[in-house]
């Protein structure tokens, strides 16, 4: 094992231990705000003289801790409430300095939000030198945590307390009695049996856990054991529209709605014999307008035989076949259940495809969740009165093989990817970039990169590390590219996940340079070849990575509640090709827009009339008041004037 790999394993194991300790129960980890699931936590790092000791590979324990701190900064939600303390940094560790050394406890960061990214810099400044005042450090940490609610201390040390009495285990017991909701956890760095016993005692007394890291080999094993976590989940942010049972009862989707959510029923009253369920919708299409539609399922991440007994299929169909230009469906094994995508693109409304109500259906066939609904999002994008002047001829397919994956960029950034399109992680569009992430079975990661017409996305996904257990018959990372409407922009690619395939890469990306005419041809509905036509829209190109771990006849699991070992991958992307002009469009007028304008005009006229009537009524009221006041104040004068006139 190389020095670099050994150091990395050491660092990752430390961070894995920290993450395992501060991680909340699985069912709590799915809350909307992840940061709130980690209780306020104070990290205490041992910086005593023994931390300068090199391990078998020559790296000091403190250096490994510094590497781990960097990983910690990307492994914890940014809004987690964290603090950071050290001991043993200000005084030496000689017997003469013991009294001062046992007070050598320093808070570098108080417990508050926003400290996650600050911790690596603070650790980088630490120099090991002094004694090991564990007891005083625990007491100070407890004082700096909130008085009420759950709170936690994580103590990382490589040896025994050198400042007893009182014994540090007794200190932990006292603190636990004072704060019922306080948990004290410990991590041992290459500790001997005596130090381990003391750290275990602290953790037990504090109601927490002890994590052991004793050598590089066991560190690698503990890394895989301790980095288990549940799969991240997501929920739609789009308004919900329930589908109809057939075309006659199709649900109305207004022209100004671009994305909406719906539930795909297992059975619907209007479905055909070869369909398990279908949701029917209607949306306006104007003369000269083209629609691009997509549907994406977003079920909870699950795996196992209990989900379904056959393959799953998803598709989009339209009532009027004359409107068809292109479509794509999705099918696959559904024991490990991830997102599925289907699309439909229409001709321009006019001679063949009639303007008016465009009726379509989302079809779910077989697959998972017997007796349950599957949540999905539908996206509709409108292209009205397209002008192809200046747009070059369609591009031909540029085939690639898995060996064409680009090499990683010089700098690799560790990220926590988004779980869906609304929180997709944005990738650099200027030049090559590489990101690295951990992913567990059943989890979905979504990235986006903004591309212009004439450009082509070239990407590669490399398996860096694989779990060494719980792998299934089908265990693979799946990657696909979608366009700005979430339509498939390329074929799905996959990389097998097992220890023997670590280091292997697979290429992915567009089959051709982006060109609107790849889909529409010369405007007379003559699209280019099947592969190239998928590369037809500019804007955000989405990259979706899914860890499929299908069990065949295995046990059903909801992996949002069960911890699994993570795989690590690198994603490299770059945009190639010279930019070209794209089409121009003009607004379309839909019947409902005209109705809205008429209604608005009528409302304005009504409001104006009401205003005039209100003004008239107001004037009459004021006139009456004035006359009344005159009568009340000068009634005699008024009567006299009248009498004289007569």
TrEMBL record:
InterPro entries: VWF_A, vWFA_dom_sf. Residues 590-604 have a biased composition (Basic and acidic residues). The chain crosses the membrane at residues 620-642. This is VWA domain-containing protein. Pfam families: VWA_2. Residues 605-615 have a biased composition (Acidic residues). Residues 40-226 form the VWFA domain. It comes from the Bacteria. PROSITE patterns: VWFA. Residues 574-617 are annotated as: Disordered. Residues 1-28 form the signal peptide. Keywords: Membrane, Signal, Transmembrane, Transmembrane helix. The lineage of its organism: Bacteria, Bacillati, Actinomycetota, Actinomycetes, Mycobacteriales.
């Amino acid at each position: 094992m190389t020095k670099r790999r050994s150091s990395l394993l050491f660092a990752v194991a430390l961070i894995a231990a920290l993450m395992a300790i501060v991680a909340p129960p699985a069912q709590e980890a799915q809350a909307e705000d992840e940061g709130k699931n980690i209780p306020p936590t104070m990290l205490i790092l041992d910086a005593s003289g023994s931390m300068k000791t090199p391990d078998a590979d020559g790296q000091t324990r403190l250096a490994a801790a510094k590497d781990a701190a960097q990983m910690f900064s990307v492994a914890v939600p940014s809004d987690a409430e964290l603090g950071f303390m050290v001991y043993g940094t200000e005084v030496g560790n000689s017997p003469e300095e013991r009294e001062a050394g046992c007070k050598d406890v320093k808070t570098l960061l108080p417990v508050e939000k926003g400290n996650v990214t600050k911790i690596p810099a603070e650790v980088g400044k630490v120099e090991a030198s002094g004694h090991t005042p564990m007891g005083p450090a625990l007491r100070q940490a407890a004082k700096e945590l909130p008085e009420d609610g759950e709170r936690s201390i994580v103590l990382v040390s490589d040896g025994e307390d050198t400042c007893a009495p009182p014994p540090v285990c007794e200190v932990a017991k006292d603190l636990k009695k004072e704060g019922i909701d306080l948990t004290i956890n410990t991590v041992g760095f290459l500790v001997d049996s005596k130090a381990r016993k003391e750290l275990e005692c602290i953790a037990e007394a504090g109601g927490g856990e002890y994590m052991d890291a004793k050598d590089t080999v066991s560190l690698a094993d503990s890394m895989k054991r301790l980095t288990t976590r549940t799969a991240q989940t997501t929920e739609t942010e789009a308004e919900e529209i329930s589908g109809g049972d057939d075309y006659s009862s199709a649900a109305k989707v207004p022209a100004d709605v671009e994305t909406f959510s719906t539930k795909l029923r297992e059975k619907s009253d209007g479905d055909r014999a070869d369909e398990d369920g279908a949701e029917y919708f209607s949306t306006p299409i104007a003369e000269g307008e083209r629609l691009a539609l997509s549907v994406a399922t977003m079920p909870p991440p699950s795996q196992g035989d209990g989900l379904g007994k056959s393959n799953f299929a998803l598709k989009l169909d339209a009532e009027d076949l004359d409107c068809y230009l292109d479509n794509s469906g999705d099918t696959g094994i559904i024991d490990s259940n991830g997102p599925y995508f289907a699309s439909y693109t229409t001709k321009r409304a006019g001679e063949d495809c009639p303007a008016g109500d465009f009726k379509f259906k989302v079809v779910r066939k077989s697959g998972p969740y017997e007796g349950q609904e599957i949540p999905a999002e539908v996206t509709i994008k409108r292209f009205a009165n397209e002008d192809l002047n200046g747009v070059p001829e369609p591009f031909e397919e540029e085939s690639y093989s898995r060996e064409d994956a680009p090499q990683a960029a010089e700098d690799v950034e560790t990220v926590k990817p988004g779980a869906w399109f609304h929180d997709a992680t944005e990738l650099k569009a200027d030049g090559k970039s590489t990101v690295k992430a951990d992913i567990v079975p059943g989890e979905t990661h979504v990235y986006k990169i903004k591309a212009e017409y004439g450009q082509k996305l070239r990407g590669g996904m490399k398996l860096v590390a694989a779990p060494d257990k719980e792998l299934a018959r089908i265990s693979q990372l799946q990657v696909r590219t979608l366009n700005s409407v979430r339509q498939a922009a390329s074929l799905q690619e996959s990389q097998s996940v097992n220890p023997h395939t670590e280091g292997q890469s697979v290429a992915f990306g567009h089959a051709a340079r982006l060109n609107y005419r790849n889909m529409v041809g010369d405007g007379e509905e003559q699209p280019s070849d099947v592969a190239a036509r998928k590369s037809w829209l500019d804007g955000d190109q989405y990259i979706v990575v899914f860890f499929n771990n299908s069990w065949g006849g295995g046990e059903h699991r909801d992996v949002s509640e069960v911890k699994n070992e993570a795989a690590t991958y690198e994603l490299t992307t770059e945009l190639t090709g010279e930019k070209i002009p794209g089409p121009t469009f003009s607004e379309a007028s839909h019947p409902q827009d005209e109705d809205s304008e008429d209604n608005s005009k009528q409302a304005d006229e009504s409001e104006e009339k009401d205003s005039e009537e209100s003004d008239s009524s107001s004037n009459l009221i004021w006139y009456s008041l004035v006359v009344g006041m005159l009568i009340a104040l000068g009634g005699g004068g008024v009567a006299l004037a009248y009498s004289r006139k007569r």
